Amino acid sequence: MRANSRSPRHPRTPFAIAALAALVVIAAAACGSSTTKTSSRSEGAPLKVAASIPPIQNLVATVGGDRVEVISVVPAGVDGHTYEPTSADVRALADVSILFLPDFELNPKVTELAGENLADDAKIVDLNALTVPEDDLLFVDSHSHGDGVAHGHQRNVHTWTNPVFVVPMIDEIANALIAADPDGAETYEANRDALKAEIAEFEVAARTALDTVPEANRTLVVYHDSWSYFGREYGFEVVGALQAVDFAEPSAAEMRRMVDQVSEAGVPAFFGSEVFPTSVLEQVATESGVEYVGNLSDDKLPGEEGAPENTYLGMMVSNVRYIVNGLGGDSSALDAFEPARG
Question: Which InterPro entries match (predicted)?
Fold first, then answer.
């Protein structure tokens, strides 16, 4: 049966246990036939691995260097929460040795696809389950979409927008690659350490820039709640999410609630992403009189593929600039930081 990589440094949390149980069920169903699927790797060929979204793909590729070939199940520029896997994804996953997930629950369809189509000797690495202590988890209230039905609490899975949480994820990425390819340990460890040093440099610059946002403006009003871990780390109240939990277009009543929420926050800007419905958010901006900044990203890397900014760090530099500038701060502390690894 397929293995799930786990760190000995963190106790199992309830959500990690639930993730493991679901993976076992999926894997058992996938292994119901007498045919055993195994991942293949030619002598001297790169280790084939996958990540569910581009930011995690980039982290894995940076640690792996030339020794790994990394695909992203969710294509560049596509919303990782709602992506519907294709037959091409099925074929691509058949030969990978490891699948890295930021969280089992981010896109259940991708997780199910993995359980059904990964080789039996492949490993699934749930980075949140390995690295985020239970006490650090945040939860969000879901809400009805015009039907009056509330749907309880949901765990917020977007830990990777907080670079402090990404550091132990990089350790776990390196651990998984070393376990699969021990001969590459020296390369993986060197790349791991270099990337962690670069994230530490960025984090200092980001914190300096974010500290310039006036106290009265230190509220992030967001369309999708990807920023609660970021906000907690850097001293921002996060208001939202404005988006319905089922990712559907908002009803008229929810539009009114959005306008009121944005107006009541008393900040100069609210934030979203280009993968969200721009016309809806522009209408909210018009009715509230508050600027809409539609450039934040939790899963889309900026720039063209291969460009220095087309990285996890490039994404976070852009995000911090948009937040700081939108809320009246000074982002110049980021000017000297050039993300160069990818």
Answer: AdhesinB, Bact_metal-bind_prot9, Lipoprotein_PsaA-like, ZnuA-like
